[in-house]
Amino acid sequence: MAGRWLLEAQLTGSGRPVLHPGEVECYTLSSVDIICEEKPNFPPFRSGVLILTTHRILWIDGTNKSGAAAIPLGAVNHIYSPSKSIKTMFGKSKVRLQVSATADGRIDERGSTAIVIALVLRGKSDLDSFYSRLRDAWSSRSWEASSSNPGRSDSRENSSGFFEGSSGVRMAGVSGILRKEQEMWESTDKSLQEAFQDLNALMSKAKEMVMLAEKMRLKLLSGSTSFGNATNDEEAGSNQEMQDWLLSVGIVSPVTKESAGALYHQQLSRQLADFVRIPLERAGGMIALIDVYCLFNRARGTELISPEDLLQACAIWEKFDVPVMLRKFDSGVMVIQNKSHSDEEVLAKIKSIVLKSEALKNGISPSDAAIALGIAPLMAKEHLLTAESKGLLCRDISPEGFRFYINLFKDIDPNNIYLVKDHGNYQTWVSTVTVSG
């Protein structure tokens, strides 16, 4: 439906919009219609979620059946002041926009004609606040700055092929290129120094720092690809560690109560579902809720959330079609896991671990299982307790802590406890203990 009249917008797996480089969310409203009274064939976009960013007006269908549509702010020619009357106080509020469109009515920045569309705000929406944010975003014209080269410095190349530095000195050849690179890094170093002078400067430079970190990460990736044969394992490990650190620098546009309003927990839930995808892949499909809380808050920078907000965001996942879920073990430990995560696969791995000769003699601890499975000890303990509840393991409690053994009681005949069958776990255990003895 959006492709005929509006631009299509991409969504993440959790229904959050995919933002352009340098794009930041400014305001969120629910139950918003987009109509065009001048075009009878213009389809009504009914009761969707409207997200205002620095670059676009995004409309997301509430049922996600029609996807998402976008109105570039660059296509907006004029924003009409909303009229206030008794009718608008108790009815629907409207914000009218004059936008550029093509001859067939499609909204486009390069359109040759102009049409007027209306954003219809239903429910208890703060019209004045939205109108103010819309005018500020439109007047700032942030999309023009993002479309230019973010990595340019004060150096520039003239038509004759000479590089001209900030001092006006013309340079050519290799020396000109090196000088240009030097000036670029000096500008970057200056930005870093300014950012860390005080907290206010850091907050104002936050978006620039995240973009810089992404550029550095991409440069590391390209460097490791080009010179992969020349680097040793230690250097490769350092590059990987640096890439992981840069990935955790921050979220470019974190959902806040100020920008999302009444939709705060809903949008926070969707953003969290997108964020945990990579940590879950690295943790084997399951990660403790407290670890997610630390990682998510670190990525959000100064826009921290409370534990209650995190719990509420996770609880809303049941209403959305997202690939993750919140799980609570019998012990009370809460984790986030992929819906595709299978306990049976983990139990099969645990069984193979406890059937090894050393484990048959001495058992395994949660730390041993954590090393073998490549997960956190807390998660390993929960998996071992789950295996015990299903009858796969037996637990021994000592001053040294818990140790788990393969359950042999299922293979022992209660009428003849001394009978050793020629197959099964009991026979394997007897053979292992006899050989070691």
Blueprint (SSEs and pairs):
Layout: H1 2-5, E1 7-8, E2 25-35, E3 45-53, E4 56-61, E5 68-72, E6 76-79, H2 86-90, E7 93-101, E8 113-121, H3 127-140, H4 142-147, E9 156-157, E10 163-164, E11 170-171, H5 173-195, H6 199-204, H7 206-226, H8 233-247, H9 257-260, H10 264-275, H11 277-282, E12 286-288, H12 289-300, H13 307-315, E13 324-328, E14 334-338, H14 343-354, H15 357-362, H16 366-373, H17 377-389, E15 393-398, E16 401-406, H18 425-436
Antiparallel strand pairs: 1-5, 2-3, 2-8, 3-4, 4-5, 6-7, 7-8, 9-10, 10-11, 12-14, 13-14, 15-16
GO molecular function: phosphatidylinositol-3-phosphate binding; ubiquitin binding
Family: Belongs to the VPS36 family.
Subunit structure: Component of the endosomal sorting complex required for transport II (ESCRT-II).
Provide a quick synopsis of the model.
The protein is an alpha+beta fold. The protein has helices at residues 2-5, 86-90, 127-140, 142-147, 173-195, 199-204, 206-226, 233-247, 257-260, 264-275, 277-282, 289-300, 307-315, 343-354, 357-362, 366-373, 377-389, 425-436, and strands spanning 7-8, 25-35, 45-53, 56-61, 68-72, 76-79, 93-101, 113-121, 156-157, 163-164, 170-171, 286-288, 324-328, 334-338, 393-398, 401-406.
